[in-house]
Known about the structure:
Distance between the termini: 101 Å
Low-confidence stretches: 7-38
Strand content: 15-25%
Largest sheet: 9 strands, mixed
Shape: globular
Structural class: alpha+beta
Number of helices: 26
Helix content: 25-40%
Amino acid sequence: MIDLSGFLTILKRTKFVIVYLLVILLILLCKISAFASSEVPTLQDYLKKVGNVERPKKEIIIEAINYTSSSNASVRKISQFYGQKDVLLWEKEGGWLEWSVNIPEDGFYNMALLYYPLPGKGLGIEFSVFIDGKIPYKEAQKVTFPRVWKDTTGIRKDKKGNDLRPKCDEHQQWQKIDFIDTEGFYNKALPFYFTKGEHKIRLISIREPIALKQLIIYNSEELPTYEEYISKSREKNSKNVFIKIQGENTYLKSDPILYPTYDRTDPATEPYHVSKIRLNTIGQWNWRYPGMWISWIFEVPQDGYYKIAIKARQNFVRGLSVHRKLYIDGKIPFKEAEDIEFPYSISWYMKTIGKKNQPYLIYLKKGVHELRLESTLGAFSEILSRVESTTIDLNNLYRKIIMITGTSPDLYRDYFLEEQIPELVSTLKRLSNELEEEAAMFEKLAGQKGGEAEFLRRVALQLRSMAEDTDTIPGRLTSFRDNLSGLSSWLAYRRDQPLEIDYILITSPEEKLPSPTASIGNKIVNSIKAFLYSFVEDYNNVGEVYQGQKVIKVWVGGGRDQAQIIRDLINDSFTPQTGIKVNVSLVQAGLIEAILAGKGPDIVLTVSRAQPVNLAARGALVDLSKFKDFNEVKKRFAKTALVPYTYNGGVYGLPVTQDFYMMFYRKDILKELNIELPRTWDDMYKVIAKLQRYNLQVGLPYQRIDALEAIDAGLGARNLFPTLLLQFGGSFYDKTKTRTLLDRPEAVAAFKTWTDFYTKYNLPLIYDFYNRFRTGEMPLGIAPYTTYNLLSTAAPEIRNEWGMAPIPGVKKPNGEIDRSTGGSGTACIILKKSRNKEACWEFLKWWTSDEIQTQFGKELEMLMGTAARYNTANLRAFQRLPWNKEEIENLETQWKYVKEIEEVPGSYYITRSIDSAFSAVVYQGINPRESMWKYTKEINDELERKRIELSLNK
């Protein structure tokens, strides 16, 4: 007889299990759906969706002054402006303008602006483009319109006979420029699909002011082929013409970073000197980004056809060619000139523009002409765009997988990935096939098998293997993530198009070209001479070396480029204004040793945070607060900026740079997960919990400090503890600055909160924030604000997808959020043994002034790009650096809460002890209160010992 009640019980239990499994599956599906494709497609997806449509040969011109609506845009109309009538001045960045346009025919169109850059911070003008209230594709989120630059002096020489870079300033002029995504891989005019009828075009200002004349919607005529170009004319060839243009003697350029460079590897480089620096080339690694261009002017004596040859070297991108567009008088003469290849070679070679041994002849009329070469991806543009699209899809797939498995999956557990991600196998196969196709396309374009395409094939092979056996995916996640990072780096590296030019030849077709390299005998003789000269040339001093007692000696850390900028500023500004002569030396270390040996400098411009107090306690530095105008000088900096350099009532250093924490976040991921930025730490706990439900992480700063590093590191922004201590109302020291207060309740609470992030919330201690942020594995993190420099230059695949905001804080009873944080930075000091202390003080006042700090920051960025964005401590200089409106508002909001922490003799022991206390809690499970109490006693003992050693208790 069947036990009906038992059967019903089993049925109920089975039903409960089924319902439970369905709920779990539903949750997982919700997680996966959260990472569905973004609302804004990539350009490649946009082109696929629209398909092949016509490009009507139409041109619609919209006068900028006829905008139909606006919001928060600081604009005014003006009747005359630099040769143009009825111009719209958009004088401050921010806000938007919208124009209505009637499109006569369906199809793809290009858009261009006729504009004049207004004086700003020296960067390109940036807009977001909306069509009918929507961004058509991601590449339209930021479109850049460049400025034009010109060398305003010739190449100068210092008193040692070395060449100095010419001064470079903006050359303002009207320009008609297409909407181009110069940051990405579609290095052509962006296509916009319009249907017939009325449309609205909106430009949102992101960065820099501009004067607008026209918005042009058009499709250009097809360029003729070279055969068509040459067959249209029966003009004769020029005869007996040989014109040489030195590459360093430029006319105009797109970026100030394109300054003259030097090469001493080959005596045939023009001009050349065996021991002196001669700026004899242009380009090198600086000329690598698509859209960068350089132009030269020349004059031909007669009408006729000419050939063009370029002495060039491309020894940066191994095994591949780089590409340039050729413009003559602002126009590309024929289709083949859109993509001129410069192959890889470790030696200089003569590149004749043409096909194989047949040069392309270009017709020029008698007179002055302009030749421009523009960096371009050429035929690689399409393949790199496709690889970028594949990489984005792979990142999305990786995040779907780790939402289920986590970043460190259990290798003995079955995750049923194929069931939980229904499209997993098909997506892996599709992406694998795409990478195989892209590798084949890359090999065809590169003209060789394997090489750089082999990495694409390795990733494709891994994807195919994962598709064949999905059970192996959890065990291969680390390798998969590494391949994703490698793929992103591969893309960024392929985007680079560096080229170096010695000179350009414009000659008659029959003229013979010179040899681009010197003979072996000449090279041997030159090497011997260079070796002998190395015994007499002084390579440490930068520029002039003065003699006499009234000369001050300045030590500069960093690189020679930075030192040369300082040398130029001194020559152009400080010495003419004050009559004080300065010797600048490039020194990396050895300050204490130099002081002990009596051979130290008068001034050091870049010392680490803890050094001023360490040296001041030993009587080695000048108290700057004794100078009569010190109180005026200190107004240049934030209220607490001088705190780390203050000791016993004196101030022994002026801040040069200052860094502090900001919160970096992925806009796309947080939006998809419906997560708001945390304003308080309570909010942060919720965000951490929600992200961890999706197996994503939050990055909080932690940097382990060894004993030697702690001496110079100081108590700045090395980890999150100083930030929490300040927000909790705690302090490192008592009023006498002789004992620490880290055993007080507020300090213990801050310490426990800090350790809880790692013990309770299991946040990672050691991680590569840059790589995890770009893959989306860590969509939120706190890091020094200079991290912006790295992300903006080295992560092009997530451009426009991330932002920077103030860090979370503690909510006070009055409703204010206290975002207090510590800081870090460098200082400049005057050594006590200096014989010219007043002259040294004049120099520090000049160096830390608003004007000089601004000029140094701008020239440094012009020289090295956004990666060298200067973190000056001068408040007004900071405002003048090339941050956009949103960035500077966020940074200034956080800067108001920066509270620098005092340095005292022995404070290095606090840094080490806090780290030891932290390790004891996180790794050994010690109670946070006990750990902090134990190390507080040791810290106070060391502070007392240090005071006895330095005789400070008397």
